[in-house]
Amino acid sequence: MKKYTHISFSVGIGSISLSLFSIFVEIGFIFYFLLFVFILIARIPDFVDHTLYREHKRRFLTHSPLSPLLIGISIILGLLFSFINLFLGVVVAIVIYLVFLSHCFLDALNPSGIPIFRRRITFKSIPYDNVKWNILFFIIGAGIAILGLFWFIILDF
Ligand SMILES: [Zn+2]
């Protein structure tokens, strides 16, 4: 999918899962900070792909649920937040990883799919720049982002 579709969908997945975890752990203003972090996380797979390989090839390193890079970034960010609160660190690591998975999921809808082990998987054959599907996932992403935000605000009071 296109850049803004990935950003919207990633922020949505991050927002809704963080608001779910906020039932169990005190997140506070960090919630809003993390929404911005999700924008960067949404861009990392394609950014690294373009930087290393000069094209959007969706390699194992950048677009696999098993990628050591994506898992590593999730763990490192989780460790950073564990200085504030150990449980918060665990939540951040899980949510960041889910955001990476949401990027992989959207790209798995394209014909070339994403790599898992030595195989590539694809769920559907939607061209990455298909306007209707991009708009659909952009709206779904924005919708669940707002839902997560409101849910968090309500739970936070
Ligand atoms: Zn991608």
Q: Could you explain how this protein is built, in words?
A:
This protein is mainly α and 157 residues long. It has one domain. The protein has 6 helices and 2 strands. The protein has a two-stranded antiparallel sheet with strand order 1-2. Helix 1 packs antiparallel against helix 2, helix 2 packs across helix 5 and helix 4 runs antiparallel to helix 5. The mean pLDDT is 94. It binds zinc ion. Zinc ion (ZN) binds next to helix 2 and helix 5.
Catalogue the unreliable spans. Answer: none
Query: For the CA atoms, what is the radius of gyration?
Result: 16 Å
As for the number of domains, it is 1
First-last Cα distance: 36 Å
Question: What is the average of the pLDDT values?
Answer: 94
The total count of strands amounts to 2
- Order of neighbouring strands in the sheet with most strands: 1-2
Work out the helix count: 6
Assess the beta-strand content as a share of residues.
under 5%
Bound molecules: zinc ion
**Could you estimate the helical fraction of the residues in percent?**
over 70%
Would you list the SSEs in sequence order as H and E? HHHHHEEH
Q: What overall geometry do the principal axes of the alpha carbons give?
A: globular
Short characterization:
The chain has 157 residues and is mostly helical.
Features:
about 160 residues, binds zinc ion, two-stranded antiparallel sheet, mainly alpha, 6 helices
